[in-house]
Amino acid sequence: MGDAPRHLTADGYVDRYEAAAEGDPLQALALLAGWLRTEWRPLFAELRARRPILSTPAFTVVTRFSDVSEVLRNGDIFTVSGYAAKLDPALGAPVMLTRDGTPLNWREKGLMQVMLPPEDVPAVRALVAETADRALDAAAPAGRIDAVGELFRPVCTTVCAEYFGFPGPDPGTLARWSRTIMTDVTANLAGDPAVHAASLEAGREMMEHLRGALADRRAGDAEARSRDVFARLLRTALPGELAWDDDRTAVNVAGLLLGFLENAVGSMTHLVRQILLRPEIHRAAALAAADPDPAEFDGHVWEALRFDPFLKVITRVCARDHVLAAGTPRETAVPAGTLVLAAVASAMFDETAVPEPDLFRTDRPPHTRLHFGHGPHACVGVHPGAAVISETVRRLLARPGLRLLDPPDGTVVRDRDIFPDRFWLGIGDREG
Ligand code: HEM
Predict the structure, then answer these.
(1) Radius of gyration of the chain (CA)
(2) What percent of the chain has a predicted confidence (pLDDT) above 70?
(3) Where in the chain are the domains?
(4) Atom of ligand 1 at shortest distance to CA of 309?
(5) Is 150 exposed, middle or buried (0-12, 13-18, 19+ CB in 10 A)?
(6) Which residue has the CA at smallest separation from atom 13 of ligand 1?
(7) What is the pLDDT of residues 346-364, one digit of tens each?
(8) Domain 84-311+358-426 belongs to what topology?
(9) Ligand 1 centroid – CA 382 distance (Å)
């Protein structure tokens, strides 16, 4: 492992981490967590070359594509029990993401695949196109748009309302519930009790609202006609032994919001910035955006996201002692109870799986991308979710004069250092 090219080790992350760990392990972990957020590309490049599986007292980071796949594919060893401890109490019930290889996961994942079929994509794209164009037209006279607040969020909350059938009391409340809960589930590695308590409270409010919405829908007469996902679930009558009822419907409608909103808004923010940072790619993407067939444009979208994925690591908890990458020079024992960070952002730059990873190539095969997860918990909303991202960004990129603005205006402003809240872009005539 010590033979990595010099340019990859010049930053010396491993040496600096280890030196810090000898003095103060907690401070060393804080250093690593900071790099994971802001210097992930050089950090992961060095780890892939020098320490592909890095064990720390708090977690193990896995950086090569094949090892990330091993973690994500083996749900019986690398489990989602960490999500269960956080999400189940917030929703007051288990949900598919928190259950490995159980009847509940099997049954509900199958059912939700039926509810979110690829055949919905054209209608979802049409809804997104109309909403996005309206937002862009409204912003055009000002010559600038807050892409997060005026475009990505309104499009996504419209999809929640119209396609999922979950408008919430208002878009702001939907966003608050989703962000508060997902902060605890995905970003509270240190287990801050205040973050967890806020998630429990948001989850309680949301589930109470959903149960009320469900009762209203049952009492009304629109359900038979509605095609939204909530209505489809309410029309689903399964035999009693399959344990499907209104409570499960409410939990799964909550899952639609939680799986979608922050992931979609964050991903769009990251990938649009990556495209606009590259003038030639921007020109090519804008040309492809005009093509009625989105296939060529989609290549730009997913490649741009690879250069800055919103979700950089997927977490798992190791359920029993396991030797990862067994039989290779990097094989590492992972004891039961270890928190494992499967670094998908790193895997997508592993040259053994993604040829010439530093090149922006729109023709990469889908198996080189991990944006929607991998293995038994791969995203159940991938078809409509991908369509929302692609169509929103396509409408934006089709606008002439689209450009990044200089800081501070053009800086992405984030809540909790994670969730994009503001991202001003110029559109139209530069004089405007
Ligand atoms: C219609 C929109 C969406 C819905 C309803 C949805 C829902 C879900 C659900 C329920 C899961 C858990 C599946 C399981 O445990 O078996 C999941 C997994 C996942 N989703 Fe989505 N999602 C949507 C959009 C997105 C988007 C836009 C992204 C990111 C670009 C995304 C990324 C992921 C990832 C990475 C996983 C794997 C999580 C893990 O393995 O821990 N999803 N999604």
Answers:
(1) 22
(2) 96
(3) 1-51, 84-311+358-426
(4) 30
(5) buried
(6) 377
(7) 999 999 999 999 999 999 9
(8) Cytochrome p450 (1.10.630)
(9) 7
